[in-house]
Amino acid sequence: MRLEQIYPAVRKFVTRVTDVKEEHGYWVALEESYFYPESGGQPADRGTLNDLKVRDVQLKAGIVWHQVDQKIEGTVTGVIDDAVRTDHAAQHTAQHVISAILQDEFNIKTLSFRTGSEESTLDIEAGEWNDALQARLEKRLRHVITSALPITANEYDEAAALALPLRKTPQVTGKIRVVQIGELDYSACGGTHLESTADLELIVLTGQERIRGNIRLMYVAKGRAFELLTKERRALREAAQLLSAKKEQLPQAVEELKQDVVRLNRMIETVQAAHVRTELNKLLASTEDWIFVNHAEEALPFSEKLVKAIAEAGRLGLIWNESAKKLLMQGSSPVHLGKFAKVHLKTFNGRGGGSEHVAQAMFNTHEDAVAYIERLKEEQVT
Question: What does the alpha-carbon distance between residue 165 and residue 180 come to, in Å, rounded to a whole number?
Fold first, then answer.
């Protein structure tokens, strides 16, 4: 076993540099290292070497390499970030517990695991996941945490390890490190763990999604769980204050708010349709076959409705929307709007395209759009 596996409590040590290589910074090998290298879905430790930040730790060909920003030689003092180590150990221990319960109580296998910067994920071999299953899992998790099951790690000969009720067949041979959680779980594992399930304090399942025909569960444990609950409780309190409701009344208040939004959108659509008709009647007073409108402040949806109405009235509509920097073109024209755009847009620093009677183009400036329209007019005349 590596030193951080034999002596997991070590956070500070003195040793010597044995090798240095330069690759995206400097990578330092040490005579002795208690840093945990990234492996099996668990991130590497963080800390310092002679007060230089250790940005990554990787195991290559049996050598633990530490990434730092400057070259280091001679004697070094290594300090492991206890908060990061404890957090990673908590998320990893939670994974062992969740996976063991899923296999023991639900006959569901774990496919993969990853500790993220905010939440951890567990891909499980299941076609569905529902509230009833989650409630059962959460109840069992609370029981395991309060039971304060001891967590130990020991190295066994291969035959002795395989004689244990391992949750999964080891991927290594020879000496095998087995992490045991009471009688709940036996797993071949090289990661870091807490000393008791009680140290987990709390595990919160935060979400789920379907991934490649299976289910991905998201969760947080220990400090991350309390931080999440504090953040969500604050958000609930603020939302309740904004809606003048109690926290338990929020679902009803939000549903009422959604209905209000639906009604307001219908009113807006009615008013907007009337506005389009009014503007259209003014524009149709012109005898020109094509109608250009400059919308300096109007919202894009209004411009889109108006250009469509112009086209339906038998004219060619050209509307420049300043906020979107977009030229809308729609209607009957002797020029194929899409083909014209393909040939000429680059000349006017534009991009876009379309079909024979409908096209759109983005321009950097109003002047570019106007110049493009003038060129389109010339093409129609010829």
Answer: 10
